[in-house]
Amino acid sequence: MTSPFSVLVLCTGNSARSILGEAILNQLGAGRVAACSAGSKPKGQPHPGALRLLARRGIDTSPFRSKSWNEFTVSDAQPIDLAITVCGNAAGEACPVFFGAPLKAHWGLPDPADVTGSDDDVDAAFEETWRLLEMRVRAFLALPFETMDRAALSAALAQIGQMEGAA
After folding, report:
1. What pLDDT sits at residue 165?
2. How far is CA 82 from CA 85, 100, 117, 144, in A?
3. Residues 69-93 pLDDT 10s
4. Do strands 103-106 and 5-10 pair parallel, antiparallel, or not at all (unpaired)?
5. I want to staple 125 with a disulfide (CB 3.0 to 4.6 A). Which of 23, 30, 115, 120 is the partner?
């Protein structure tokens, strides 16, 4: 494989779970994985709780933005190897056609953006989402995905999606 495995993390609003998934994949998979995120109905900006968490972890928040999955369907878009939905709404929607005929996986998790209360309450929800996503990303990165056939990789991705916290 000459270029990193490209992963698109999808959620309806592209403001919380998908942003965190993009960050974790790029941080832990540096060199092996190139991740982006998008949504079917982007909120326009990342959730403040997501940005606070990224900043606490020393991750530059400036590259993160809430964007439409349509950006990845145009003829000059980078081919996607894997599209991962992290919310039930996006998993149930008809995904557009992405170049590269990506594998699809569902790693549904509760939305930390739905948590109300103090910043501490919201931050705790985002930390838990980070923990659950990081567990899934580590399991994915432990696979020899570059050399696995599509059926085996698809089955492994489905198992990862059923890990602790699956929604």
Report:
1. 87
2. 10, 9, 35, 14
3. 989 888 888 889 999 999 866 555 5
4. unpaired
5. 115
Compute the Cα dihedral for 70, 71, 75, 80 and give only its sign.
negative
Calculate mean pLDDT across residues 135-148: 97
Tokens coding 26:
């790029």
Q: Over pLDDT 90: what percentage of the chain? A: 77
Sorted by sequence, the CB contacts under 8 Å of residue 149 that are 6+ apart come out as: none
Alpha carbons 105 and 131: distance in angstroms, whole number: 19
Adjacent-strand bridge partners of 34: 6
Residues with Cβ within 8 Å of 62's Cβ and at least 6 positions away in sequence, in order, are none
* Tokens standing for residue 141: 């990165």
Owner of token pair 């919201």: 122
Q: Which residue has the tokens 């919380």?
A: 16
| Residue 166: exposure state from Cβ atoms within 10 A (0-12, 13-18, ≥19) | middle
How confident is residue 42, by pLDDT bands cut at 50, 70 and 90? very high
